[in-house]
Amino acid sequence: MLEGPIPDGFGKVMNSLEVLDLSGNKLQGEIPSFFGNMCALQSLYLSNNKLKGEISSFFQNSSWCNRYIFKSLYLSYNRLTGMLPKSIGLLSELEDLYLAGNSLEGDVTESHLSNFSKLQSLSLSENSLSLKLAIISSAGFVDAQDEFVETQYYKELASIDKQHHTTVSGFIKAAREGGEGEYEIQLPNNHVNAAETQPRSYKSNPATNDWVPNSDEHQPNRSEST
């Protein structure tokens, strides 16, 4: 198991890597900006460590010379803080973005997400983020369906009043534009402000406070399960 800060010279030595998985260690310190300067890097897994610092510093201090090939970023379950920078939109080829289990705060709006035309999985759970999306489909990468929440416990949730701030625990399921495939957007333990959207109705379920299983069971990559 690796411990301590990531060495400054690591990026130069490993500059030709396409996939780097350092998840499930005890890495500390800030995420080095050189990861965004590794021009061949396509997937970076740093989940389940003890990395800290402002997440905006990581995005803003990198050249992102690999932005047209970079597809997967896993930073879940660290100690990252601050607001999600709009410069994250530079990663236009991103397919998977996992930021769950940190201490991120602030608003997430369409301007953060509108450039992600290929995004398939987005996990923001267990942060203090406020999601302010006029309608999900206006972000440009999903066509929202009426399947708002589907779990083994509640297949057809009776109703959701999205006229107020509400804590969402579960999944928003949405089809890709063109009807092919699905996106999974994990939003547990954040706040949703969707005052401009229309309420959606779902049939015949009792209401309890424990209406979804732990979202970690649904995470698709090994870096989320260590």
What secondary-structure arrangement, pairings included, does this model have?
Elements: E1 3-5, H1 10-13, E2 19-21, E3 26-30, E4 43-45, E5 50-54, H2 55-60, E6 72-74, E7 79-83, E8 96-98, E9 103-109, H3 110-113, E10 121-123, E11 128-132, E12 143-144, E13 159-160, E14 166-168, E15 171-175, E16 182-186, E17 190-193, E18 200-201
Parallel strand pairs: 1-3, 2-4, 3-5, 4-6, 5-7, 6-8, 7-9, 8-10, 9-11, 10-16, 11-17
Antiparallel strand pairs: 12-15, 13-18, 14-17, 15-16
Biased composition (Basic and acidic residues): 215-226
Region (Disordered): 189-226
Biased composition (Polar residues): 189-212
Overview of the molecule:
Keywords: Leucine-rich repeat, Repeat. Residues 189-226 are annotated as: Disordered. Pfam families: LRR_1, LRR_4. Residues 215-226 have a biased composition (Basic and acidic residues). Strand 15 and strand 16 form a beta hairpin. The chain has helices spanning 10-13, 55-60, 110-113, and strands spanning 3-5, 19-21, 26-30, 43-45, 50-54, 72-74, 79-83, 96-98, 103-109, 121-123, 128-132, 143-144, 159-160, 166-168, 171-175, 182-186, 190-193, 200-201. The radius of gyration is 18 Å and the shape is globular. The chain has a single domain, classed as Leucine-rich repeat, LRR (right-handed beta-alpha superhelix). It has 226 residues and is mainly beta. The longest helix has 6 residues, at 55-60.
